[in-house]
Specification:
alpha/beta; globular; single chain
């Protein structure tokens, strides 16, 4: 753990590296991305071990959700970097002739990234890809709740990337608090709303812009699906999006399901059979991160009315931090399991009379990071799209939007703000600078005092881009 003086020196070194100008070059940015790719290739086995140590992740899950996604993202950034950095020419009104204008992306400076413990490699390096592609110096603070991954990052980032401009600091909450005493040009925080409020309050002292990736209760609207094949695929995707990503400890995992009463027996039967098929052994699902979170999840089921709603699973192994995939049917809507983000392998199913009622149910709650809807009903799809708000909306699948670089990833309202992934990561860590150039060929004196009504009349034509009427009035041919 670094002390306050060491953290201050780290911040100073990063600022010095950025001010040297070297992070702005295309060559530097490409070198960092290539170094990161080498790290992921050469240290893949170590990364898998770290993720297993921290969360019990199977190496296939670790590759699917973290290492593989990062390799894809870094390669995409290398491929597209030239286009992302290119100035964007914009239109300039004829009256400004001779003139040109463009929007030029420039790095923000020195940025601070707080990552989370549930996808500790991915949520550290995905924003890092965008930050270095945009030409920034970066300080990464990985979560202390995933210590093996934090050590892995601390041991290797400096070996594969520019150690003066890309640094890792390890430690607990006190380190985060000390870091926020310094001035940064952007802070990205991934985690809980409670800590996010502290980050924003600390950032306000320096007017530091902040992006927050939080979460919330992501609903899944499950309509009646007639075809056996489509139904099988839909249930596969629900189970995969609830229990497969870190045992439900994921901000975009399904939090609860809404289904019509009449379709419940079919859905419940298939969920149970699919769980048995997908998780024949405990090691095919991650474990709970630590004892505190295990007890938090256990407490959700201590309420007698909630415990009575369990229709599948519910067994717990405190020694191994394992909770069996658990399904609950209609727990009380005012219980903690239905008012707090679950972040674990517990899935409430809420029945509605008509599936259309699910729209009002979702609208009555804070805007989630994602809404998932399995339906072939075009009218219902349209209502969900037009009447709900969420960070993302996915029909007939779930979680996969995270891996699509062309889609922005981020929340809205209480689920966060700021978007990244792909070009959106580059833009998150860039400033779009307006650059305009003019010559001295023409000077319109009507823009200067002393004022009279003829100047006002001419300006009225200019602001409507009515150059014909402007010329006529300027020449005295129209009053």
């Amino acid at each position: 753990m670094a002390d306050a003086a060491a953290l201050g020196e780290t911040a100073r070194e990063l600022r010095e590296a950025y001010e040297s100008g070297r992070t702005r070059s295309v060559a530097w940015r490409q070198a960092q991305l290539r170094g990161l790719l080498r790290l992921l290739q050469e240290k893949e086995a170590e990364a898998f071990r770290a993720l297993h140590d921290d969360l019990g992740k199977h190496h296939a899950e670790a590759f699917r959700d973290e290492v593989g996604v990062l390799v894809k993202s870094a390669n995409a950034a290398l491929r597209e970097l030239g286009r992302w950095m290119a100035p964007e020419k914009v239109w300039v009104p004829l009256i400004a002739f001779p003139a040109s204008a463009q929007v030029v992306p420039e790095p923000l400076g020195v940025v601070l990234v707080f990552s989370c413990w549930n996808v500790p490699l991915g949520l550290s390096l995905e924003p890092l890809i965008g930050a270095v592609a945009a030409g920034n110096a970066v300080l990464l603070k990985p979560s202390e709740l995933a210590p093996s991954t934090a050590r892995f990052l601390g041991d290797n980032i400096g070996r594969y990337m520019d150690a003066a401009a890309v640094k890792v600091v390890q430690g607990g909450p006190e380190v985060g608090e000390q870091l926020m005493e310094h001035r940064w040009d952007k802070v990205l925080f991934t985690g809980s709303p409670r800590i996010a409020r502290m980050v924003m309050a600390a950032a306000s002292r320096h007017l530091t812009p902040v992006a927050l990736e939080l979460g919330g209760k992501c609903p899944c609207i499950f309509d009646s699906i007639a075809g056996a094949r489509d139904l099988r695929f839909a249930v596969n995707r629900v189970v995969g999006a609830k229990w497969s990503p870190c045992a439900g400890q994921a901000c975009i995992a399904i939090d609860y399901v809404l289904v019509e009463e009449r379709f419940l027996p079919t859905l419940l039967k298939m969920l149970k059979s699919t769980l048995k098929s997908f998780f024949p052994e405990a090691d095919h699902m991650a474990r709970i991160v630590n004892a505190r979170h295990f007890e938090r999840l256990r407490a959700l089921l201590k309420d007698t009315s909630v415990a009575a709603s369990v229709v599948h699973g519910g067994s717990m192994d405190a020694k191994n931090l394992y909770i069996e995939p658990t399904i609950l049917l209609n727990p009380p809507l005012d219980s903690a399991i239905m008012t707090e983000e679950i972040f674990g392998p517990l899935l409430p199913i809420i029945t509605v009379k008509k599936i259309e009622d699910s729209v009002a149910f979702v609208r009555a709650r804070p805007k989630p990071l994602a809404i998932y809807a399995f339906t072939g009903n075009a009218s219902l799809r349209r209502r969900i799209e037009e009447e709900t708000s969420s960070g993302s909306l996915v029909f007939n699948d779930a979680v996969v939007q995270y891996a699509i670089d062309a889609l922005p990833f981020g929340g809205v309202g209480e689920s966060g703000f700021g978007q990244y992934h792909g070009k959106y990561s580059f833009e998150m860590f860039s400033h779009r600078k307006a650059v305009m150039k003019r010559g001295y060929l023409i000077e319109l004196m009507l823009r200067y005092p002393p004022w009279d009504e003829s100047k006002v009349a001419l300006m009225r034509h200019l602001y409507r881009f009515d150059y014909f009427s402007f010329v006529l009035r300027f020449l005295g041919l129209r009053r």
